Amino acid sequence: MDAIKPGDLRPYLPGGGGHVLITSRQPRWPQAQMVRLDVFTAEEAAAFWWRRLVQSPRLNQSETDALAELAAELGYLPLALEQAAAYMATRQKSAADYLRLYRQRRRELWAQAEPPDAYHATITTTWQMAFDHVRQTPGAADLLNLCCFLAPEDIPLKVITAHADALPEELAAVLADELARDDALAALTAYSLAAREDGMLTMHRLVQTVARDRMGDERAHKWAEAAIALLNTIWPFDSQDMTTWDECPLLLPHLIASVELAESYNAITKRAATLNGKIAFYLGFFGDLEAALPYSEQALAIRQKVLGPEHPDTASSLNNMGALLQAMGRLEEARPYTEDALAIRQKVLGPEHPDTATSLNNMGYLLRAMGRLEEARPYYEDALGIRQKVLGPEHPDTAS
Questions:
Q1: How far apart are CA 169 and CA 140, in angstroms?
Q2: CA 73 to CA 80: how far, in whole Å?
């Protein structure tokens, strides 16, 4: 049996000497020698594929790479690898084809799966009991739902708790109460839905995936938006203040996971656009321009859809796209974005608004980079004139 608590075992324990092997999701057992059964390593996964699938001593390199990618996608969970292997073997599917099908139709694949020999569960049922139990502890299910829209590793409890007021009221109340918070965390760890160490939570990616699949569209949308709201609040990066930089590498994977999941669950909001923009600015600031580009594009696309083509925030995203492309040396591609941002600001904000001056200045900077110095000059002159008039002769932007 899979034991839940020590008392469950009393009827089965022998009275004399000897050893008893207990399997349990519970991570703590008194008076027992613990052996943690973890997921496969990459090497163990490769060995599993070899035993389970390979018929020849030589394996095509592309198939080897696809199997490695599939194992990583499945989080190296042995049960998930076994179900995938069974499907590939019985249907003569390549790893690349299975991975494509998994990404497109995961729920249907899992619904068809049968438990492996000598085991009682599939991916869709293996955590059923744990999900049922955490619902009995106030806040535990809500905390699980939130964490399903963050990266699976190094979820910072202290940071989340410090900004609990950015979360839905029912979870915020639990996180604000130390006893209730401890109970909620204990419920998640007791049933191995999460591990807690050094103030961080870690979840297996398939726990997150299964939990998201079980939420339903409405609840998933709610928690995707909650994660976006939280991360917008806690993201500390200020390019002018180096004391804000240290925490960012820890938080960045959560921002990236959150915006990608928000798109998948149709949480396309102003906050999602803002978070995409923050990721793009951070990556671009530290020189990873190619990585920054899709987030800048997504921020613009959301604002155009949600706010409209002439909103000032849309103009900001156009301006940012132009600046990023210019930094990448793609000057001709940058020009229409920079021009459109200027046109919107002139029309919506007025010809003497400081943001209009910024766009004029940026147009001058772009034309200068293109070697079109005479064309650049009037943009610079107009930007200077606005700033002298509106901001004053000694303002830092006037000096710029």
A1: 14
A2: 10
Q: Give 265-280 pLDDT, tens digit per residue.
A: 888 999 999 999 999 9
Average pLDDT, stretch 378-399? 96
Question: CA-to-CA distance for 315 and 281, rounded, in angstroms?
Answer: 16
Task: Spell out the residues 6+ positions from residue 216 whose beta carbon is closer than 8 angstroms to its own.
Answer: none
Residues 291/283, Cβ–Cβ less than 8 Å: yes
pTM of the predicted model, to two decimals?
Answer: 0.83
What is the SS3 assignment for 94?
coil
Contacts of 92 (CB under 8 A, 6+ apart): none
Take residue 177 and report the two structure tokens written for it. Answer: 């109460």
Chain centre to alpha carbon of residue 41: 23
Rounded to whole angstroms, the Cα distance separating 244 from 307 reads 30
Strand duo 200-202 + 195-197: pairing? antiparallel
Q: Which amino acid belongs to residue 38?
A: D
CB-CB contact of 254 with 267 (8 Å): no
* 395: its two tokens: 């303002």
Secondary structure element (H or E) that encloses residue 266, with its range: none
Please give the average per-residue pLDDT across 2-23, as a whole number: 72
Complete DSSP assignment for 130-189:
HHHHHTTSTTHHHHHHHHTTS-SS-EEHHHHHHTGGGS-HHHHHHHHSHHHHHHHHHHHH
Q: What is the pLDDT of residues 104-134, one digit of tens each?
A: 888 888 777 777 765 666 777 777 778 888 8
Q: How far apart are CA 272 and CA 282, in angstroms?
A: 15
pLDDT in tens, 139-161: 999 999 999 999 999 999 999 99
pLDDT reading at 55 higher than 60: no
* DSSP character string of 278-326: HHHHHHHHTT-HHHHHHHHHHHHHHHHHHT-TT-HHHHHHHHHHHHHHH
Return the minimum-mean-pLDDT range out of 11-15, 231-235, 354-358: 11-15
